[in-house]
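SAMPLE LOG
Freezer: B-3
Tube label: C17
Construct: single chain, 280 aa
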Amino acid sequence: MNNILSRTVICLALILFAVLSFFPLAARFSAPERYTAYTESIDAKTDTVLKLMAASTVTSAGISAIPGDTATPIAEKLADFSEYFLLILCVLYAEKYLLSIIPLGVFRGLFPLACVLFAVGRIWNPRLLDRQACKLTLIGVAMLLVIPLSVRTSDLIYTTFQDSIDSTIASAEELSEETKELSEADDVGMLRSVLNRLSETKDSLTEKASTILNRFVETLAVMIVTSCLIPILVLVFFLWVVKQLTGVDLREFSAPVGRRAPPRRPHFDREGREAEHDPY
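STRUCTURE (predicted):
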């Protein structure tokens, strides 16, 4: 009688927690106000990427105005950087929105389902159901931590290179101002400018353009590492932790059905006929 009473109390407590997780906890942990510090960090990176995208485009147009074909490959390369910055921008926006979407899915999906499995396990096959419930709980906790931890980790690297990124933007704006006169001049003015400053301005601007290109390459590498590579590494780390703790390899769920290994048949004793036909 005491055993039945204790199981009933545990089941009611698990059902209560499932209801709390589905309604108040999901609304609380998915509220954008709860992740203000993380969204501000992502917004700061987003503003930087937008500035870099605009600077690379304007600088590319300005370098194209330098007389001669020496700086043309540099201008074309800088124009290509806009595509990479656009990709980084998409990743940052995805992280920002997933901060609220993932908790909503965890508290309204994984955690209530884990509570139901725990409750059913008190009645039928507790070993199997408790194990599945623990797996769902650990996966949910890992999903809740992956983006906040990746944002904090990327902030450490981003802060270190913040001065270098600001210097790149400032240098690009300075070069754009210097080439603005060449790009806005008419044919006569262009010819006069080239004849008067051919030996000085052309080489100087080309050298500055080459330096700007090197700085943009370094800045692009930093932004890819902080915004794209670190979230992927953190996700892989959490998947590895979940696999070590639960034995679940999440890659198996994405494998085609035809490629999955067939289930093993039960092995009977040596005297049974089934054992003779058992290929395992």
